[in-house]
Amino acid sequence: MNDSKSGSSGWWQRLSGGLRRTSSSLGGALGDLVTKRKLDAATLEDIEDALIRADLGIAVAARIAEAVAAGRYDKEISADEARAVFAAEIEKVLEPVARPLVIDAGKKPFVILVVGVNGSGKTTTIGKLAARFRAEGRSVMLAAGDTFRAAAIDQLKIWGERTGSPVIARAPGADAAGLVFDAIAAARSEGSDVLLVDTAGRLQNRAELMGELEKVVRVIGKADPSAPHAVLLVLDATVGQNALAQVEAFARTAGVTGLAMTKLDGTARGGILVAIADKFRLPVHFVGVGEGIEDLQPFAARDFARAIAGLE
Fold first, then answer.
1. Is 260 in contact with 232 (CB distance < 8 Å)?
2. 178: three-class secondary structure by DSSP
3. Phi/psi of residue 51, nearest 5 degrees
4. Is the sign of the CA dihedral 179, 182, 186, 192 positive or negative?
5. How far apart are CA 39 and CA 29, in angstroms?
6. Which of 20, 4, 8 is nearest to 270 (CA)?
């Protein structure tokens, strides 16, 4: 079970602060709806609508409205009570998917393929993960597999310098699959514990780009039949409902094993993570609420549920 306010109180402050737009929109709506109103059918319908608008998904919204009403129908409920019920129900959805990204020391290098659409924060997430793994005492290598954008290659090199991680890179336009194959060989010969592979940001509805990603996955399997050992999909919380389509497409193409959701501080749509957890049941490894290295942390269900409900 994840304890509330796990880790440092500094992270709790950043998480609850980062999710303020979501919690203001959600908690505020819940508070307004139940204040001085009895929990009749009309109020419950309004609560459900507010939860759906917050991107929580129809199924989750219906369950929460039902939980708020349980034993209280035709009675008044305080805003704090409603928020506490809301947080508890959200935690129930999130608890099964709040699982850490475990590095198997027996697989060397442990290959993590990082995928997602353009602008989701993939390269920055890789840099932050490299910093985390290095702090844990692991040796890390980075592969600049986003060969389409010179800026992505440069950005990864900066993270490599910052975290003391060698970077395997080629000129922009080079074959990504070939680069990744070479990176696995280099990581193996250097005895690296972890190889983080960046990929070109691709729209999930562009067949030819998804085909290239399939090729990268195939080539990794040729270099090491047990790899990739993890496929991390980075999602940008600000895209809301579109994230559902991204999970579906990348899961089909690259065999996603876990999720990281970034930019939760830039949106009132943080509830989308709940809808994704409910629909796909994929492990959520990390959440990000800012640009700093410390702003990407392991996902804790209770912390997140309390933060989006606006509870202290």
1. yes
2. helix
3. -70, -35
4. positive
5. 15
6. 20
The beta-strand segments (E) located in the chain are: 110-115, 140-143, 167-168, 194-197, 230-236, 258-262, 284-288, 296-298
- In DSSP notation, 141-175 reads EEE---TT-HHHHHHHHHHHHHHT--EE---TT--
At 74-88, the pLDDT tens digits run: 788 888 888 899 999
The answer to whether residue 246 scores a pLDDT higher than 50 is yes
- Cβ contacts of residue 133 below 8 Å, gap of 6+? 103, 140, 193, 194
Q: Are 144 and 198 in contact (CB under 8 A)?
A: yes
Token readout for 25 is 């929109």
Q: Say whether pLDDT at 4 is over 80.
A: no
Report which residue type is found at 312.
E
Residue 282 tokens read as: 């994929």
